[in-house]
Every structure is written in structure tokens, then in C-alpha cells.
Specification:
It is found in: Membrane. With 877 residues, the chain is α+β, with helices and mostly antiparallel strands. The protein has 26 helices and 20 strands. Helices cover 49% and strands 10% of the residues.
């Protein structure tokens, strides 16, 4: 399940490299192995093609202004040459994107394929190819241009052979010849037709599209209904990897491509006529605005289905069908909406439809090749390429795959726990079960300080009165206790998050109320929203200093639970916003290695953590998020004997969109227990809503992410061969609510078998737990009798009892109820929403790929820690 690593026992502040999970690739790659870099000739060909294409497009656009008179035949051939250039650019774009997927398959530490430069280059090439196709719509017409899309297949096959080192055999040669023949026949048909070159104004286009015919509306309704019903069937029955999934993604992408071209052609035609006639009011006409909005409405689903097809099937299997349906989609829209076949003679129409059939036949030849290679097995394809196309259920069908899928950099036995004292002193481990107990601990620790205080905070109201039952220290605030400590000669260091999105005080305000002897350091990331996203979200940063600890006299440390504000309250005590808060904290003795790391953490540092270089890891039993903490959680889950209890503020795990393996590990352990007939229970507590998030987009995303994670839990279970009934017999996912009022889960703890626990600031998301860019986090591993006591105390709190010893069967019965009694306690079952899973699926992709890193793990990030001196205003936000 895990592999020994020299990183298992690292000294304090050692630079621990990020995840380097590499697939096994032969040291001496074969001729057919994918290249480690793109060939120079290919790069030069792309640059020249882009240059030539842009020059050609400029001539086509500026031709009328330069009074260049070209006859219809020459204009037709100009369109053909333009199609050749655009098809090559599109094929090059697909090739670059496929190369990005191969790089990620070789080394998943690189992140996602969309983060790679080659992927962005591919998007640029596809954009240029699309612009070329749009200009070409005014030359050939939508239906006539449709067959030329198949030229991309020829370029894709050639580039696959000479750039990606994929095989190019008889099938590829035959399909290329057939496609060229089909395109040639269509060109001949276009010459016979003598199609008049028409220009459209907004009024004439409106009359054409709204003519007295049932075909435009009928075609639109049928296309949308087809896509919705087919995609719902695929997603509901988990058929993404099957033939119907290939059909769904390729056909829906192709159909939407037809509508994209239709809307784009309409906008281009109206724009041309408006510019020619200087009719500027056209651009403010509601009908024109609707046509402009129709372009992204069709383009976004098209790109989404294209990306899903490439994710599940790979280029050579998906692109041929995709191109075939682009042909059909463009031809359908051109014939139905623009009535482009009306001027075709009988012979021209026969030749044109014959060319279409010949072109599609060439596509089918490629599909035969794909099926042949799948059945016979293509040993020449490298491991890295196969990994891109390997279905997840194939990985999960074999027991031996669990070891690979949940491999970690160290074993459970190599992890150190807070109860493992290395000296004769007792560890003084204790757990605070609600925020009142946390405040008691804060007051006690600050009052006891004699030498030093090291405090790290994400959010703290230094003027809030701290709760305590000690009459001598009542009515104290953080400010008053720090002032008293400074008077005693205590050296005070504060590591601060100056970003004020969540209500943090400014540095200037703190300087006014805290003694000047206090040492301030600020940790700030360079990852923030773009100029565009700033209009949609009120977040000024996408990554935060999120470590919460209080270290006293280099002897005792309190991990989490030491942030202070009015949202946090004691158990079942409403805060000022009218809901409840659930908080935990752990206090233990510091080891010398832990102290050394804390000292280093408060020192000024440029590039505190950088995505593709190194990240600082504290010594066990401390963990600081990222891949190391994720590995700890996976080890704990996969080694659990009978129970897993996981509480997290948010839950975003599972599926190909997420890097962390927490939810899949829980399902894998349930699958093992089910196969062996062992009693095993897993309880996950999270929030269905995030009322304290300042951004509406963040709150919406968190709601969607819960729905996504629930769906992925079920998908993973089905991949393991479990029924949903089997899954939910062992698993309970819930939220906390008392008398209809939210109890905000902020406890972020993992408890295994009532023996091992991890309390952390990390949330269950890639933004905290992955080998990708993270918030700064801190957690503590602890074990022993205290863990069992804590778990039983928590269960009593949740179920409204005191001092009762619960078994997991009793806990599940209380939560779910039975024939004799209703559910009891504050744990409410968290169920999937009734909306379409396709909607969740689509919106999660939109949020993740358009959020610039807010959803975690997609964009590089650097934290810079700076000691505050006189220049304090640079941190004002």
C-alpha cells in the first residue's frame, strides 16, 4: 500500500520535494514511444502556418477594400486553401493538447493537462483554426464547408505518427485516401452548383431564419432533446467509457459545433453588411445581441463535450467521430437554416451528398482501425499513452491495483504520533471539544508564557473578550494578554494573514493596539483573481496563509482552534449570525524538531512555497497540508480495522477533476470490508452550505462540490462492483443541524478505529490536500486513549446524550432511525439534490477550469513571508 521513503523521517524545515508519481517508461524508449519534447520541425511548421493563415485571412478581409476583383472559381479555390490551413492548425492544436495529457500521465506532479504550456498553445491553434473557418463561412457556405472538416483527420493521423510516434498503417492510408476523395467530390459539386454569393442584412437574415417552415424550430428541438436524453442516460447509468459514451460525446459536440458555426456565420454576415452600410444601430438590436450570445452558448458545450471525449477515449478514438458529426452538424444547420441546397441542381446535389457519404466512410475506416487495435492489443503503444486512455474501472477491477492507486511516500508505521513521547516527560495531550474550551486553553497558555509566544493565525479579532471560568483572568482579550506577556519579558511573534476578505484586522490597526515589541510577519500569496473575475467575486486572493497554532515557551503547542472571532461559539450556542459553530483543538508538548520548524516558519522567506520546486514539511507529528498530509490520511484510512470518522468544513473529492484520494480511499476500504464480510462503518460530516464565505461564487461552488462528491462516491463504488445499497450500508454522509438551524462543521478531523486521529486546518479539497498549489496548513497526528475518549464525547454531543458508550451499529441506527423510533440527534443525512447530474457535472467543470485557481491546484502560487517593519502599509488590503 505504501513504499518506504527516505522522506519519512525528515528533520525540521527540510525541503521535501513534491509528488513525483511517474509511470513506468522504458529507459530506452522505442521508436513508438511519445517524445519528451515536441520536434523542432513541428514547432516551426506551427509558427509558419499561423503566420501564413493570419496573412491569408487579412487578405480575405481587406480584399474588398483593396478593390481586388476575383472570379467565383478563384474565390472557391481560395476557400479550399483556407480550409487546408485551418484544418492543419486544428490538428496541430489537438496534437499539442494530447501531448499535454501524455506529460501529465508520465508525471502527475505536473498537475492537470490544462496547466501545461502545450495545452494553451493547442487552444491558441484551435482558436486560429476556428477564426479561419469562420471567415471561410463567407466563401463556401456552411453546408459546403462541412466536408472539409474531415481534412483534420488526415493531418491528425500524420502528426500522430511523426510527432507523437503513434502508428500509421494501412487503415490510416486508406481512410486518408477515401476522405480526400470525398472532399474532392464535394468541391466538384460546389462548382456544378454555381451557388450565388449572398450577403445578408439583419432584416433579410431574420426573414430567412424565421421563414414559414417547421424545419428550423423542429431541428433545434430535436437536437437539444437528443443531447439531453442521451447524456442523461450516459451519466445515470455510468456509461462514459462505453460505446454509447463515445457516441454521446462526439455527436453532441458535433451537433453543437453546427450551432456554433450557424450563430457565428449569422453574426459575421450581419456585421459585414452593417459596416458596409454604416448602420451602427444594428449592433444594439436585441435580435443581433441574441445572435452574439448564441455563440458562447453553443461554443461552451461544444468544448465541454470535446474535452470529456478526449478525457475518456483519447484522440485517435474520439476525433474521427467528432469530425464526422461536425460534418453532419454543419451540413444540417446550413441546409435547414440557410437553405443552402436550394440552388443546387439535381446532379450537384447527388454529387454533394455522395461526397458526404464517401467522407464519412473514410471516418468509419479509422473507427475500424481503432476497434482492431483494441481487440488485438497494440504493444507498440507506450505505457504513458495507454495511461491517458485507461478507464478508471479497469484500474479498480483488480485487487492489486489498490496498492498502486493508494501508494504513499511512507507507511503508517513510519508516521509519528503526539502520544509517542521521546523523553521521560508526559506529553500532556488534551483535546478541546468546543470553542469555549478552546478559549479556556488560549487564556491558560498566554497567561503561563514566560519566555516566548509564537502565534500563527488566519483570522483573529484581537479585541474580542475570551471566555474563561478562571475568575482571575475574566474579561481579557488577546490584546490585554499579549500586553501582559510583553511586560513579563515574553518574546512575542505573530505570523499573520493580512488579507482582509474574511474580516481580518489591518496591520495598521494591530500596530495601534499591540505593544511595539511584538514581532510581526505576514505570509501573502501571489495568486489572485484577474481583472475580469474581480467583477464576479469579492475575493482579493485565491490562496491564503491558513496555519493556526499557538506555541508557548517552546514547550507546548495548541494546533487549530486558536482563531478568534464572533462567528465561533461554544457547542449549541448561537453566534451573532444566528447559527452554531463546531470547533476542536489539540494541545500537546513540543519536540525540539517542532520548535525548530516553528522558528523557521516565522522567519522572512521569499518563495515560501512554490508549486514545481519544493515545499517545506514540518516534522511528525505535525503535518502541513499538501501531498504529505494527504498521504497520512490515505494511510490511516486504508489501514483502518473497523471504522473511519471524517469531519471537514468542505468536501471536494473523487473523480478525474480532483487530485486528492480521500473519498476514493474510503470507498476502497469499504469494498475490501464488504468482500471479506467484515463489519466496517464510515461516517463523513460536512456542510451543505457555507454561510461565512464572502463570495457568492464560492458559496455556490461549495454547494455544487458536495453534490459532485456524493455522485463520485457512488461512481467509485460502482466501479468496485458494489451496489449503492452496499455502499450506503457501510457509509453515512451527514451534516449537523439543531432545531432547523445550521451547526457549522469546522472540526476538520479524521479518527480511525478510535485509536488514531489527525486534527488539521486542512479542508477536504485539492486546495489543501494535494501535490498541487495549496493554502498553508497545519495539523497534528495524535493517538492513544485520548482519541477514543474524544470520539465517544463527540458521538454523545451529536446524539444528545451524556456518558454513553456507542457502537457504530448504534450510531447508524440513531442517525437513520428504525421501524420503532425516529432518527435522533443533530446529524442529518446529506442526500443528493434532485437536479440533473449532467448539470452538476457541467457546472463543476465550468467552476474549476474558469476559476483561475480558486478551486485549488490549477495555478502556480508563491507565498512570501515578510517581517513587518516601518513599511507596514504595503500589506493593507
Amino acid at each position: 500500500m505504501s513504499r518506504p521513503s527516505p522522506l519519512a523521517a525528515t528533520p525540521a524545515s527540510e525541503l521535501t520535494p513534491l509528488l513525483d508519481v511517474c509511470l513506468t517508461v522504458a529507459s530506452a524508449p522505442s521508436v513508438h514511444s511519445p517524445p519528451f519534447r515536441l520536434p523542432r520541425w513541428f514547432v516551426l511548421a506551427m509558427i509558419l502556418s499561423v503566420f501564413c493563415s493570419l496573412v491569408w485571412l487579412a487578405l480575405l478581409v481587406l480584399g474588398p477594400q483593396l478593390n481586388l476583383h476575383v472570379d467565383s472559381t478563384a474565390y472557391l479555390y481560395a476557400g479550399v486553401l483556407n480550409s487546408l490551413l485551418g484544418s492543419f492548425l486544428s490538428a496541430s492544436g489537438y496534437c499539442c493538447q494530447k501531448y499535454a495529457h501524455i506529460r501529465v500521465a508520465r508525471n502527475s506532479a505536473l498537475g492537470t493537462a490544462t496547466m501545461q504550456t502545450t495545452f494553451l498553445v493547442g487552444l491558441f491553434l484551435l482558436a486560429v483554426g476556428t477564426v479561419s473557418a469562420v471567415i471561410n463561412l463567407g466563401i463556401l457556405g456552411q453546408a459546403v464547408q462541412a466536408p472539409f472538416a474531415a481534412l483534420t483527420l488526415i493531418y491528425s493521423a500524420l502528426l500522430g505518427r511523426f510527432v507523437l510516434h503513434e502508428s500509421f498503417g494501412v487503415y490510416d492510408l486508406l481512410s486518408s485516401a477515401v476522405i480526400i476523395l470525398g472532399v474532392g467530390v464535394d468541391v466538384y459539386a460546389a462548382q456544378l452548383a454555381d451557388v450565388p454569393r449572398k450577403s445578408y442584412t439583419l432584416q433579410s437574415l431574420g426573414r430567412l431564419l424565421m421563414r414559414d417552415s417547421v424545419f428550423p424550430l423542429g431541428y433545434t428541438v430535436m437536437a437539444i432533446a437528443y443531447a439531453v436524453l442521451l447524456l442523461r442516460r450516459v451519466h445515470t447509468d455510468k456509461l462514459q467509457r462505453h460505446a454509447i459514451g463515445l457516441l454521446a460525446f462526439s455527436s453532441c459536440a458535433g451537433v453543437m459545433a453546427g450551432f456554433t458555426s450557424l450563430a457565428t456565420k449569422s453574426v459575421v454576415e450581419v456585421t459585414k453588411s452593417a459596416l458596409k452600410d454604416h448602420d451602427w444601430l444594428v449592433f444594439f438590436n436585441p435580435f443581433f445581441i441574441l445572435m452574439v450570445l448564441a455563440v458562447p452558448c453553443a461554443l461552451v458545450p461544444q468544448l465541454f463535450f470535446l474535452n470529456k471525449g478526449l478525457e475518456f477515449f483519447g484522440t485517435l478514438k474520439f476525433i474521427p467521430l467528432y469530425q464526422a458529426f461536425i460534418i453532419i452538424g454543419n451540413m444540417g444547420c446550413g441546409m435547414v437554416f440557410y437553405n443552402e441546397m436550394a440552388s443546387y441542381s439535381y446532379n450537384a446535389l447527388v454529387f454533394f451528398l455522395g461526397g458526404i457519404m464517401i467522407t464519412i466512410s473514410g471516418v468509419c475506416v479509422l473507427l475500424v482501425k481503432v476497434d482492431y487495435e483494441k481487440n488485438s492489443g497494440d504493444g507498440r503503444r507506450s505505457t504513458a499513452v495507454k495511461a491517458v486512455d485507461r478507464p478508471m474501472d479497469e484500474l479498480l477491477d483488480h485487487k492489486s491495483r489498490d496498492k498502486e492507486r493508494f501508494e504513499t511516500d511512507f507507511t503508517l508505521e513510519q508516521m509519528k504520533w503526539a502520544t509517542d513521547s521521546e523523553d521521560a516527560k508526559p506529553n500532556d495531550l488534551r483535546v478541546c471539544r468546543d470553542f469555549h474550551e478552546c478559549q479556556e486553553a488560549i487564556v491558560e497558555l498566554l497567561v503561563s508564557a514566560r519566555k516566548s509566544i509564537y502565534y500563527s493565525t488566519f483570522l483573529c479579532d484581537f479585541t474580542q473578550v475570551l471566555h474563561t471560568t478562571n475568575e482571575e483572568h475574566m474579561d481579557n482579550t488577546f490584546v490585554s494578554l499579549v500586553r501582559d506577556a510583553v511586560k513579563r519579558g515574553v518574546d512575542v511573534h505573530i505570523l499573520y494573514n493580512p488579507v482582509r476578505d474574511y474580516g481580518t484586522n489591518s496591520i495598521a490597526d494591530l500596530r495601534l493596539i499591540l505593544p511595539p515589541e511584538v514581532h510581526f510577519a505576514c505570509s501573502v500569496s501571489d495568486l489572485g483573481p484577474s481583472w475580469f473575475t474581480r467583477h464576479l467575486s469579492n475575493n482579493s486572493r485565491y490562496a491564503f496563509h491558513h496555519q493556526k497554532y499557538l506555541c508557548i515557551d517552546e514547550e507546548t503547542i495548541m494546533v487549530t482552534g486558536c482563531d478568534v472571532n464572533t462567528e465561533r461559539e461554544g457547542w449549541l450556542r448561537k453566534n451573532h449570525l444566528g447559527y452554531y459553530w463546531h470547533e476542536l483543538s489539540v494541545v500537546c508538548r513540543c519536540t525540539p524538531d517542532m520548535v525548530a520548524w516553528i522558528h523557521a516558519n516565522h522567519q522572512p522567506a521569499e518563495k515560501k512555497r512554490y508549486y514545481d520546486q519544493f515545499m517545506e514539511s514540518p516534522p511528525f507529528p505535525l503535518v502541513s497540508g499538501g501531498w504529505r498530509e494527504e498521504n497520512c490520511m490515505v494511510n490511516m484510512i486504508m489501514n483502518a480495522k473497523h471504522s473511519v470518522q471524517l469531519e471537514s468544513q468542505i468536501m471536494i473529492s473523487g473523480g478525474s477533476l480532483q487530485h486528492n484520494r480521500i473519498c476514493p480511499a474510503i470507498v476502497a476500504r469499504i469494498s475490501q470490508a464488504h468482500r471479506k464480510g467484515e463489519p466496517f462503518h464510515a461516517l463523513i460530516l460536512t456542510n451543505a452550505a457555507q454561510k461565512d464565505e464572502p463570495s457568492f461564487l464560492a458559496r455556490t461552488y461549495c454547494t455544487l462540490s458536495v453534490q459532485w462528491s456524493l455522485e463520485q462516491l457512488e461512481d467509485c463504488a460502482l466501479a468496485y462492483g458494489l451496489t449503492l445499497e452496499d455502499l450506503w450500508r457501510h457509509l453515512q454522509v451527514g451534516r449537523l443541524e439543531n432545531d432547523g438551524v445550521l451547526i457549522k462543521v469546522h472540526s476538520n478531523i479524521l479518527i480511525v478505529d478510535g485509536k488514531y486521529a489527525l486534527r488539521s486546518s486542512s479542508n477536504l479539497a485539492d486546495r489543501s490536500l494535494s501535490a498541487r498549489p495549496n493554502d498553508t496548513e497545519l495539523g497534528l497526528l495524535f493517538s492513544g486513549p485520548r482519541v477514543n475518549e474524544l470520539q465517544q464525547d463527540l458521538l454523545n454531543m451529536y446524539l444528545g446524550t451524556t456518558g454513553k458508550r456507542y457502537t457504530w451499529a448504534q450510531v447508524f441506527e440513531c442517525i437513520r432511525g428504525s421501524h420503532t423510533h425516529r432518527p435522533t440527534g443533530v446529524i442529518k443525512q446529506l442526500e443528493k439534490k434532485t437536479w440533473s447530474p449532467v448539470f452538476t457535472w457541467f457546472m463543476m467543470n465550468v467552476f474549476i477550469y474558469l476559476s483561475e485557481g480558486a478551486t485549488g491546484g490549477r495555478v502556480k502560487v508563491t507565498y512570501e513571508t515578510t517581517v513587518i517593519s516601518e513599511n507596514k502599509h504595503e500589506f493593507e488590503a
